[in-house]
Amino acid sequence: MDPLKNLNPEQLAAVKHSDGPLLIVAGAGTGKTTVIAERVAYLIERGLAKPEEILALTFTEKAAGEMADRVEALLPYGYFDLWISTFHSFSERILKEHGLNIGLPIDFKLLNEFEQWALVKKNLAEFDLNYYRPLGNPTKFIHALLKHFSRAKDEDLNSEQYLAYAGELRQNLDGMLGGGDEIAGQEAARINEVANAYHVYQQLLLDNNALDFGDLINYCLKLFRQRPAILEAYRRQFKYILLDEFQDTNWSQYELIKILAAPNNNLTVLGDDDQAIFRFRGASMSNILQFNRDYPAAKKIILVKNYRSRQNILDLAYEFIKQNNPDRLEWQLAKSEGLNKKLTAETPGAGEIGEIRGADLAEEVGLVADKIIELKNKDRAASWNDFAILIRANDSADVFINELERRGLPYIFGARRGLYAKPVIMEAIAYFKLLDNYHESVSLWRILNLPVYSFTGAELADFNQAARRKAWSLFEVLSRAEALKFNVETLKKIQPLLALISKHTALARDKAVSEVFLAFLNDSGYLKYLTGLAAPESAAAVNLLNQFLKRLKDFEAANADKSVKSFLAELNLEMEAGEEGELPAEEEAGPEAIRILTVHGAKGLEFKYVFIVNLVDKRFPTILRREPISLPDALIKEILPEGDAHLAEERRLFYVAMTRAKLGLFFSLARDYGGAREKKPSRFIMELGLEKKEKDPPVSFGRSGISLKSAEKGKSRGPEPAPSSVRAKPALPDYFSYSQLAAYSSCPYQYRFAHVLKIPVSGKEQFSFGKTMHATLQKLFLLLNEKKGLGQADLFGAGHPSATVKDGNVTFKEALELYEQSWIDDWYKDKASKEERKKQGREILKVFYEKYKDSWPEVLFLEKGFNLKIADGDKAYTVRGVIDRIDRADAGLRLVDYKTGRAKDKLTFEEKEQLFIYQLAAQELFEQPVSGLVFYYLDNNSEIKFIGAPAELDKMKQKIISTINEIVGGKFPPRPGRLCAWCDYNSICEFRK
Question: Can you state the angle between helices 251-261 and 286-294, rounded to 10 degrees?
């Protein structure tokens, strides 16, 4: 079936657009992601471009993943290198490969907001601050300065340009600032201080081999502007560029796209100015207006057929957002081009629109819960996933969370912050503090309350009483428990805990914090306890543990001292900086549940029933919080709006909230929120036409004729459904890898632990060493190709500028430097074994270098990712992988995979499977034959070469299909045997041998 048949005429025109610039104005729910995916697939299937010749950019990793999945589903075959990513990932990839050309290190570190704050605080004396360094709180303005630097980068303004502007102010005070000399002088001094701080900050980043997120865009722009040959190479590669959520781009991002798209300008942008809600992140809504000026001949397609909401909901939203005129695209182009953005519903019938009013916040919250229950009972097809409570700010969520918990209703709060406040993470942090200081009684108290230790309330009370009586710490009480004559049963519980603390204290002296964390989880039995909980609770806990483990790994990657003590010092600094720990996004993950989300977090989502709550003055819309340090108007390049920019942004945010609703849209508010005065209804209530003109409006009313009556305080709110018994099915992957398939073949129950439950595991010495050698060789060949002027070679275009080979080689000293940069210091049992391995790595590298220094293989690709589709009747499964190295050989392509260890005399079929999969992918996706498969064994620099015969490849395909069918069927039987002794999950597996 042709998927294009399902498109409406406007969508089809957008998909089939040939060449030149195209602006697609895509209203809410009009299928813009479908259009992007269909256009990418159309260009590939019609032979207008190969997958690697299309660049599609969006703003979140989640959106990029969804777009890639949509495209993959449409293509009948797999692909190499589909460039679908975020702006920042794209720029990082370019700079990792070509940053040397503008003096950037190839191993630069990307700093997050806290790391930027910590860098500035550590070097605060170098900033020579006066105006922005109050004596009582020297770090007060660090966040404001960093936000200001980010804002400058959004405007494509580097520190040298800022310094030049500040210098001009000093020379011409009256002419540029006006007013008296004293006032003008103070302002010029302030701007010079900020400009100098920006310059110092940028130098500090470079001195520390670091970039921030704004740098990724700006240095990529600098690379393209200063190295025209590299720009030309990418211009030739990307025949078509597509940009989603165009209204959310900032000036720098738009400049990057314009320079890359020229001169052919095969640029498709999709956006909706009415959904521009990220001004606080630097987004320039004017870009969507500027596009019309930059490309006056651009074709424009307006998508107004809405496949989400009912017509009365769309009409209400449209009449509301029109109050943002004249700063709307529709208003500006209505006369000249007849632009009409009024959405029309493709779903018949009317939705329910209602207002809920309570006397106070508690009643408002209760009425919202009542209405959710009423709708759930009435709409038997609805699941809890169909309900969303949208809040303006995270701190408004608590009362709704408490009410849903009280009623036993399932919910997920989609916060992005708060990891460190989660109970399972607080236990781990408490244990770290205990290892750092035995007399940290508060931390020990938390550990004593863990269910794995089974201390009774009476025993805990006895411990506390003894500590107070003796003026001892809790640890001293436990250590002297026998002398204090605690009973035998209590002593039996105390001894294992004390032994564990002693063991892990010794571990913490020499090992990285992540190793101590995993040792605590496994040795205490806490991980086994958590994985034994019911499915939703277990999945949520493991998800949090993995997020915390990622945080620990990030800390270790950035610090030479990876100890528990060092991590706690950084954690304290994080707390000082106001950080709460990043939470994994889970709006659409986990069990069936009501979603509590900020409106920003709800962007891109849809629900049957939406409740926009707390609609009172100063809550929604919020009060304007001006930037503490604003960018001078003379340095702003974007077109600034005419009206109240903050109110217009809040209206767009409210419009986004309204257009999430499919079938029901409800607005809630109350008179009393705990202050001295009653709250006035939000101005948005009046702008919607919901505010009654009577002096005393009714408590609540429904637009569809259904009255939402307020229950009397203290009385029952009617029947409530029992807590949800729905349990999430195992989250099966959208794609499979060789490692997944091998894990399942070895033991399906092990696969369940690793790839379904995703239980965190300790690392191994050989893995750290293997990753070190892989990374070293990848960097070595990247440097070789860079010196030869190749980069990642273009296999498909003979006329590519990068195909010109220049003289260039790498010295062994440079190779050793790459090895030192790549060294991973984790999971070695002691210092001696680590040094022995490090020496071994140097020897391996020396032999490798001597072997190839006079005749390096012609490397076409490094770490080449692929997506291979394996057909099974009318189904198709995706297998993904990464090939370490692809060389050009006389008879075709040579696929190389590095292995630590020594070569065997002969390989079994199972041992060849990984390269058989790579051969299948390369044969299908490249236009050249595969002439050889190579396992390169690093320990003795030896190779095993072979090639898969047609029969072997067919056998491999069938094995892939049968294995995936078993996984998809949810079959994870244990397969205990001799491998149990080496299994990562031995300690928590009840079937181990």
Answer: 30
